[in-house]
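re the bet — no i am not wrong, look at it urself. input seq straight from the record:
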Amino acid sequence: MILFPPAKINLGLRVIFKRNDGYHEIDSCMLAIGIHDIIEITKASDFEFVQSGIVIDGRQDDNLCVKAFQLIKLKYGIGDVRIHLIKQIPMGAGLGGGSSDATSVLLGLNELFNLNISDFDLETLAESLGSDCAFFVKAGIQLASGRGEKLEPIQSSFEGYYLKIINPGIHISTKEAYDGIVLDNSTHSVKDVISLPKEEWKDALINSFETAIFHKHPSLAMLKAEMYKEGAVYAAMSGSGSTIFGLYKVRPTLKSEYPFEKVIAL
């Protein structure tokens, strides 16, 4: 079985307040995009996890794909598998690659072993692995609230637009992202702004992480400004960084200056 876990971008990301459980309350819109990792899952006599592509540091047992398998094995008593992850989505980049990989393993095991787990239960399982994992059960475009697990599919057309993605190779940890975060107490919800014409998003669709991250990494602010100069109707940092993206009506050019740079027709 071959799976293609997609990346996502955040169209707006309001961090509103810190909750009693230690998480932050957010308001965002997540959009799955045509950049993917690759996962192969096959039944095996013993569990094996193999990883290639972009190197992932850390212990194998800490990988969310392994945790996803262990979760399903414990709950449903499935047999062992071999998982091969080919990593192509940059890490620490605000693109949700690790979360997408984990959720794809849940989806793949559900199909491979004919478990007939409902989407609701898959989202619940995914939520236990990470705050934005549940989004990738259905992907598409969804509003996200709570700590990212409360989801609401919405309709928004991006036909005729191009998406330019640049990741300059800066790894930003969750802790770094939340250090110095400027909480958003405005009354303009992401849902309200998304309903406006995209040309009106520039000053209204805000990522709360940008102020602190741009102060620490000025090159990211420069990338965003360059996209507007190039003709983007909207540009922002995705998630907690460090990927910068822009929406364009005319296909933008690539300069191939960065470790990861793509243009996608939406």
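see?? The CA atoms of residues 5 and 104 lie 6 Å apart. told u. also The chain has two domains: 2-153, 162-265. so pay up
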